[in-house]
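ingest -> validate -> predict -> emit
validate: passed (alphabet ok, no gaps, 114 aa)
predict: started
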Amino acid sequence: MLGIMDTIDIILLGGLCCVISAGCLFRKQRIVRLLVVFILFCISFGSVMSLSTFGPRLAIGQHDRQSGQSSKEFVEGVSLATKIAGLYYPYVLLSTVGLALMAVLSQKKGRDDA
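emit:
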């Protein structure tokens, strides 16, 4: 049975927080900033693609197009897909927040020409 957060998920979310904090701490170094943005973009893109490809909405939509009756296996499959999709939302949220934070912190404060 799937729990709310498994140990691997907690470790991966902790690693994601470490990547974001390293990007904030070393934002003056361009290579670190680019690496962090690349990692966060890959995580957010991969999570969104996984949600859109394997999400329960796709299965329900396909089932509605076929206009068949719901079998026990179908209901269990959609239930499992819903549980699995729920695990991707923290990754999407945290990586998007990290990307926004990197964008805000990377901006120049303004020009002091005087």
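The helical segments are 7-25, 30-54, 56-66, 72-106.
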